[in-house]
Hints:
The protein has one domain. It contains three helices and seven strands. The protein has helices at about 5-10, 15-35, 45-55; strands spanning about 60-70, 85-95, 105-125, 130-140, 140-150, 155-165, 180-185.
Amino acid sequence: MNSPHKLKMHSSGIEKSSIAPLIAVLVLVLAVILFAGPAGAEEKSADEVARELANPNNSLASLTFKNQYRWYKGDLPGADDQDNYTLLFQPVFPFTMKPTASGGKANIFFRPAFPIVFDQPVPEVKNGQLGFKGVTALGDVGFDLGYGVTEKTGLLWAFGMVGTLPTATDSDVAGKQWRFGPELLIA
């Protein structure tokens, strides 16, 4: 916090009005996941839960926080001194379907990813000098929506779509476009 660059970065952070709806949605999602379990659900051992969480086509809802730290190298003056931190919140919403004809376990799953970037270096020219400013903002929300089957043999296959929604709160970290594409998984 000794450099003026860091002090300036904190003054241009996320406005309270832009993050309040996101916090409300996250609290609602958390409440639904914690308090709305299926009636009569069977208890599972820690080993069974761990095995299911390792399967990308599992039937367990989860809330994941991923920490990502990056540092940069480059030819621009000062590029080697840049870094940033991203907190990625990724809940998983699986919906269990009837078993397949072969007896496999089928799910429809939805996995959104909400990135919050802290001190993302963005090149800028100020007073004729090239430098970097730090941007803290909500990034574009990515997601995947798919149908997956885990066969009795252990074969896992899934298909669906992946996408990105232009939801960033700062144009310097925004993709500024809708993106959609196919998803295919065999494991």
